[in-house]
Structure formats: C-alpha cells, structure tokens
Amino acid sequence: MEQRSPAGESKVLTYLDHEVLSGLQDFADPSREWRRLFSELLGTFFLVLVAAGGGMMGQAFPDTISRSAAVVAPGLMVMAIILFMGKVSGAHLNPAVSIAFSLRGDFPWRRVPGYIVVQLIGATLAALFLHAVINVSATYGSNYPAAGYSAGDAFLMEGVLTLGLISVILGTASGAQNVGFFGAIGVGAYIALAGLWGSPISGASMNPARTFGPDLVGNDFTSYWVYVVGPLAGALLAVGAAWVLRGAGGGAVSSVAAQGNPPGDFERPEKH
To answer: Where are the alpha helices (H) located in the chain, listed in sequence order?
Structure first.
C-alpha cells in the first residue's frame, strides 16, 4: 500500500482547515445572512420555474412537452443550482431539506424559518412569472393526486419518494462527498428518476415549497396537506436511516455542506 508522506498529509489538513473551518469566527455576522437567503430564494425560483413551467407550457402549447421531459427538467435544474450556488447556502430549495439537515444536527434551527420563508417566496414568484407570461392557470403547474387515486395514495408516494431524496442529499453532504459535483449529480439524477416513475400518482413534488407557489397563485390548495406532510414524513424517516447508516450528524464537513460557506461563514449548530 502506498504510504502518504507527512508533507502530503500536512497539505491535506491545511486545505481542509481552510475550506471547512476557516470561517468559524465570522459566521455569526448577520451582514452575511442575506446572501444565504437570497441564494435560497433565487434557487427555488429557478427550480419552480422549470418544475411548474413544464405543466403550464404543456397546457399552453399542447403536444410540445412530454411527461418525461417535464419531470427530468427539474432534476437538471437542481443539478445546475447546486453547482452554481450550493456553496453559498447549501442549496436546500426545499423546506423538507432544511428541516432534515437540522434534525441531523448539520444546520442550526434558528436559520430554518428564514430559509423556509424565502423558499416559499421564491416558489410564489416563479408561479406569478409563469402565470403572467404564459397566461394559463398556475394550477397546471402544481401537484394533485391523480384521478382514481386517493390523497392517502399520493401521501404514501410523496413520503417514499422524499425518503429517497433526503437520503441521497444527506449521503452526498457527508465525508468527502460535499455539495458540488457529487451532490449535484446524485440529487439531480434522483429527482429525474423519481419523477419518471412516481409522478403519475402524486406529481413527485417531494417539496412543500414547489407545490405551494402554484397553489397560491392558482388559488387551489386541494390536498395540499399531502405535499407538506408527505415530504416531512419522508424527511424524518431519512434522518433516521442516516443515523442507522452513518451514526450521529453534526460533523464539520457535513455542516458546511448543509449551511453553505460564503467567505467567513461557518458555525457548529450544537453551540447555538
């Protein structure tokens, strides 16, 4: 087995110290919180723009966007968002993700309300934009249980799909697989695959914010509870699975993945 030289180990430790722990002293600076919140708002806007836009564009221009294209597009968009802004805020884009990271011990609870509020705002702005430009009801871009299936069926589907999504997110945000290339590929691919087989029953939302925006703009919250309780239940199960697979969370690397790392920003959640 090849032995690593002390000099090589020193360089690795220096790099990790700079990338992971360099911002400990400045994380509490409130002047940087707006970057994270703006990042979440912008990212969720783009996610819902694509996720809801597929259905709304399909209604305005029949036979132009297939179901496969409509469900794969959000996965590709999430992949791009993680790559371009994951390091700023963690690219949660989803209240269930923010709550899961906090339950795992990787994200401070006091930041969760702000994240959720801007995620809902970003989703609503996207639905408003689509409605204004495409001029069809935003309900065509939302998620509802399929005809012939109950809200309970859709709830179970959303719960299981979100269990998988959060498991992928928590897994790629631990150890050396931080947000970035590995996280982008894993999370984006999972969203696309889940949509391909799971969307006919529930729409494969897996995200309370993604469904909230179009429902609010379309003024139709039919069975919205499915898209809140389902993803939250899936997130809770995923956190439990992560504990079984990898033990307790709250490590330095996974915390940076959850929180993002704008210059000078980092905190250990358990200290607050």
So the answer is: 6-16, 33-60, 67-89, 95-104, 112-134, 151-172, 181-202, 208-218, 226-246, 252-259
Per-residue pLDDT tens digits for 41-100:
999 999 999 999 999 999 999 999 999 999 999 999 999 999 888 888 888 999 999 999
Domain 31-263, CATH class in plain words = mainly alpha
What does the buried/exposed string (b/e) look like for 15-42 if buried means 16 or more CB atoms within 10 Å of the residue's CB? eeeeebeebeeebeeeebbebbbebbbb
The span from the CA of 116 to the CA of 130, in Å, is: 21
The domain ranges of the chain are 31-263
CA 44, CA 181: separation in Å to the nearest integer? 19
Greatest Cα pair distance, the chain, in angstroms, is 65
